[in-house]
Design brief:
heterodimer, A: 355 residues, mainly alpha, B: 31 residues, 1 helix, elongated
């Protein structure tokens, strides 16, 4: 009886703490978004999950000496916040974008996602990375971005340290790419459409893609955004395939026969909500204003999730992952950069599929 | 090490759709 009461109080205290810290993370995010950083980097490219995780981590370090962790833990509902955010994310991904964005963007997205995903998957295997980290990282680089990393993490039931690690890498790596790629594109004399397709196909976060495009020119920015939104629209497909693969193959115990009931048990059901939400949005049943509000709610849900992850983060677990994931990430990013350049040049210069 | 569990999935779907409904009804939330 006493235990139930203290755990209920823990839920309330934990939730109150997470919401308060999320408010603080939001405040910091707004200040950073208004900044203009050196080299013309917009503050917006330092996306909110970074601040939310840092605020959570600061809270973590404060709570630890007082041993208050165990008390608030029942209120740190990371999975719930994350998966709710993912369902809301689905309500902003239009399958119609795929048709609207044209052949060039679709062909590029399909080539890039498939090639980069399997390259990273293979390389992570060579480096002996954990199965789940492998999936989260491959999706984050191939589909590009934080949302993709989160969706993959949900689909394969990854550890929070893995999500935080990959998300931080994604946001931090996007910054130098955003500045360097327009400079390189200029040095190579790339046309606006090839440069835009290159930025959109390579840089991982949407804000940095738009930033790079803006530096290079208006037409480049437009193509960059189109290529990026096409990749984003495919998040659901990748998340669904990963969920099926992990439920059917990876989680299968040795000697166990494929069994539909077991697979259904292991399948992350929120993925169905995510896809249903995406279908509803694609059918045009959600108006413009509602879509903006849903986007804001999604950001809040992910802020709560990253604050909780920061609060629960085990520093020793991150240390245990070591530097190998960083090396895999950087090599794959280099591969992605070169391949995206080749594919963008082929599709948008030689075959001129951009228009 | 606690991992993401699946028993919260349906709750997340319910919550997600409830929030979507509130957004459609004009809930004034910004980020």
């Amino acid at each position: 009886m006493q235990k139930t009461e203290s755990s209920r109080a823990g839920v309330v205290a934990g939730l109150a703490l997470v919401f308060a810290l999320a408010g603080l993370a939001w405040f910091i995010t707004q200040q950073v978004y208004a900044l203009k950083l050196p080299f013309g980097i917009p503050g917006k490219s330092l996306e909110y999950p970074l601040w939310a995780a840092l605020v959570g981590l600061a809270g973590n370090l404060v709570l630890k000496p007082f041993k208050a962790h165990e008390y608030v833990r029942p209120g740190l509902r990371t999975e719930l916040f994350l998966k709710t955010g993912l369902v809301l994310l689905g309500a902003g991904l239009s399958l119609g974008d795929l048709i609207k964005n044209g052949a060039g963007a679709i062909v590029q997205a399909l080539i890039m996602i498939t090639a980069v995903f399997f390259f990273c998957w293979w390389l992570a295997g060579k480096f002996g990375l954990d199965e789940k980290l492998r999936a989260v990282m491959s999706t984050a680089i191939a589909v590009c971005g934080v949302s993709a990393a989160i969706a993959a993490a949900g689909s394969v039931l990854a550890k929070k340290e893995q999500v935080t690690y990959v998300t931080t890498l994604v946001i931090v790596t996007a910054l130098p790419l955003m500045v360097l790629m327009p400079m390189l594109a200029g040095a190579m004399g790339l046309s606006q459409s090839v440069a835009g397709a290159w930025f959109g196909g390579n840089i991982d976060t949407t804000a940095a893609v738009v930033g790079a495009g803006t530096i290079y020119g208006e037409a480049a920015q437009k193509i960059a955004s189109i290529v990026k939104t096409t990749q984003n629209a495919l998040i659901g497909v990748v998340a669904f395939l990963l969920a099926v693969y992990y439920a059917v193959v990876v989680e299968r115990r040795s000697g166990e026969r494929p069994n539909p009931r077991l697979m259904w048990e292991r399948f992350p059901k929120f993925v169905l909500g995510f896809i249903a939400a995406s279908i509803i949005f694609s059918l045009g049943w959600i108006g413009k204003d509602a879509a903006v509000t849903i986007g804001a709610l999604k950001n809040w849900a992910f802020t709560l999730a990253f604050v909780s992850m920061g609060l629960e983060l085990s520093v020793s677990e991150v240390q245990r992952m070591g530097w190998r994931p960083v090396i895999v990430f950087l090599i794959t990013t280099l591969f992605n950069t070169l391949l995206a350049l080749g594919v963008a040049w082929l599709l948008f210069e030689r075959l001129t599929l951009g228009g | 090490m606690r991992q993401f569990k699946i028993n919260e999935d349906w709750l997340a779907v319910l919550l997600g759709f409830a929030l979507m409904a509130l957004a459609i009804l004009g809930l004034p939330i910004k980020f």
